[in-house]
Amino acid sequence: MSASLLTLDGIGIRFGGLQAVADLSFAVERGEVFGLIGPNGAGKTTVFNLITGVYRPTEGHIALEGTDITGWAPHRVARAGIFRTFQTIRLFYGQSVLVNVLAGMHLQTHQHWWQGLLATPSQRREELELRAKAMELLTRLELDSVAHEDVAALAYGLQRRVELARALIAKPKLMILDEPAAGLNDQESAALNRTILAVRDQGISVLLVEHDMNVVMNVTDRIVCINFGRKIAQGTPEDIRNHPEVIEAYLGKDDDDDADVRVPGALEIAGGEA
Known about the structure:
By secondary structure, the protein is of the alpha/beta class. The protein has 10 helices and 10 strands. The chain has helices at residues 44-51, 74-80, 97-102, 113-118, 121-140, 156-168, 186-201, 213-219, 237-241, 244-251; strands spanning 6-15, 18-28, 33-37, 59-64, 67-68, 82-84, 174-178, 205-209, 222-227, 230-235. The strands form 2 sheets. Strands 6-7-8-3-9-10 form a 6-stranded mixed sheet, with helices on both faces. The protein has a 4-stranded antiparallel sheet with strand order 2-1-4-5, with helices on one face. Helix 7 (186-201) links the parallel strand 7 (174-178) and strand 8.
């Protein structure tokens, strides 16, 4: 078994004449929160789409636990244990929180469609077991009190948490979170931090793209920063916070400034789309 959970080895993709990602390599270890950051247009979401099978790399390889998953279809990547959330919330409005979370368990069901149609004893038994598991997770995420409410009626921060619950219920090996703090207030962001750390404590690795540097610096174990689709830095949150190339990528460079100037906390002002 590979030492790393997820490995990207020299991946790249070109859209016509645009090289969106080039020669990008990094590894996500088991049980860690790994951050992927970069300024607007750096290629972060493109990297997510490469990992999850939305795009096929034109160069390089992607491996999960040593198995090459390069170019696998999204449903096959999900079955292998990689689940993701999106920048924009994608829930089934008009349905309850519980129903939304149960939708994430479809890969764990063992019944055939006709058993559901006939409501066989085994189908009913499995449904009760799945609902019990979903309620247990909702309780852990402090969502049990709204389990039977329409998700459309929930505050934005709670909807984000429901989306996380739907991915978690599938028992992933790796959770990919694309801008989970977008639109959250300070209190909701703090709750998100606790949720991400709780996910990690369950042994689930997390790959996080986030512009809110308070979230990134508080929950990640390691970070890689990319710019124009290429890696410019990798290290601990403190390494990245003070890395001159990272600061330049986010803030630009003043030719009159000394190259060695440190800008404490400079990354906290970053924001926008990936």
